[in-house]
Amino acid sequence: xxxxxxxxxxxxxxxxxxxxxxxxxxxxxxxxxxxxxxxxxxxxxxxxxxxxxxxxxxxxxxxxxxxxxxxxxxxxxxxxxxxxxxxxxxxxxxxxxxxxxxxxxxxxxxxxxxxxxxxxxxxxxxxxxxxxxxxxxxxxxxxxxxxxxxxxxxxxxxxxxxxxxxxxxxxxxxxxxxxxxxxxxxxxxxxxxxxxxxx
Length: 199
Known about the structure:
The protein has 199 residues and is of the alpha/beta class. The chain has one domain: Rossmann fold, CATH 3.40.50. It has six helices and seven strands; from the N terminus they run E-H-E-E-E-H-E-E-H-E-H-H-H. The protein has a seven-stranded mixed β-sheet, sandwiched between helices. Strand 2 and strand 3 form a beta hairpin. Helix 1 crosses helix 5, helix 2 packs across helix 3 and helix 5 runs antiparallel to helix 6.
């Protein structure tokens, strides 16, 4: 399905994850790592918001689109409530929502971008769709790979990155932040053409 996205802001960018320092460095929180990178680029500060999220607002570059960067204060599986509240608070259509998520079905150090569709088994995205009543929003899917051997998927996403992965993690996070910026400025197709190729 084609995305009806335009470069007009504001754009609500939600990084999925779990709250608290104990989860901050886990695979499940890579979406929130991407938001930290975006906020750093714009020198934006996260503040407590009435929608049960922490929010940073502003432009990442002079003359660029306006962003609302949001991290739900809830656990991953109940992310939908804050997202729905944020859309209502800012009077935004879901077509201007970008969800940044971890993705087991994509190899580590790989990005996939899409608009619409189902949740693909991701419980955070499942709850966002349930709470907003639509799947018509953009997803930046950050690959964390399948667990090795017999390790459970839940254990895998709630664990930290391996030493080898940590070497490339800053580049992956930076690329995902670049993808968010390009979706907002140039549209989804342009971002897909850039990030869906071998890197």
